[in-house]
């Protein structure tokens, strides 16, 4: 089973891209955070709190969801994304083959008021 659930904050306003002959896609980045306490014991109050931020590339292909996401998701918004992981390759502008990991979103849930405002 290939299933992903992410809860985080949007890193940039979405963009919509369309390659000739293919359906459009809405793309944005999502930051997720992990926090943990360092020290001798998990239950102790001592120790420092450490944090790691991971950035994810989110792609939305579903027509209705793609359009709503493009129109209403904004940088800084807190959202929940469900989807699957897709691994691919591309050739960059220097003709170097690169690997890319993308989350293909099936569902996007808006969790903060900051995400819903008209696009200018």
From TrEMBL:
Task: Look up keyword Hydrolase and say if it applies.
Answer: no
Q: Which Gene3D superfamilies match?
A: Nucleic acid-binding proteins
Cross-referenced Pfam families, in alphabetical order? Answer: SSB
The name this protein carries in UniProt is: Single-stranded DNA-binding protein
Q: What are the alphabetically sorted keywords of the record? A: DNA replication, DNA-binding, Mitochondrion, Mitochondrion nucleoid, Transit peptide
Return one GO MF term.
single-stranded DNA binding
What's a GO cellular component annotated to this UniProt protein? mitochondrial nucleoid
| Places the protein is found | Mitochondrion matrix, Mitochondrion nucleoid
Q: Does the keyword Mitochondrion apply?
A: yes
Any one Gene Ontology BP term: mitochondrial DNA replication
Name the domain of life. Eukaryota
């Amino acid at each position: 089973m290939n299933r992903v659930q992410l809860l985080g904050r949007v890193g940039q306003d979405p963009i919509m891209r369309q390659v000739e002959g293919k359906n459009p896609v809405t793309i944005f980045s999502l930051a997720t955070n992990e926090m943990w306490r360092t020290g001798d014991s998990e239950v102790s109050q001592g120790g420092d709190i450490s944090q790691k931020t991971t950035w994810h590339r989110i792609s939305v292909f579903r027509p209705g969801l793609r359009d709503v996401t493009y129109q209403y998701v904004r940088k800084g918004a807190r959202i929940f994304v469900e989807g699957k992981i897709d691994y691919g390759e591309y050739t960059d502008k220097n003709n170097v083959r690169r690997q890319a990991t993308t989350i293909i979103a099936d569902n996007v849930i808006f969790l903060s008021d900051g995400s819903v405002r008209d696009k200018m």
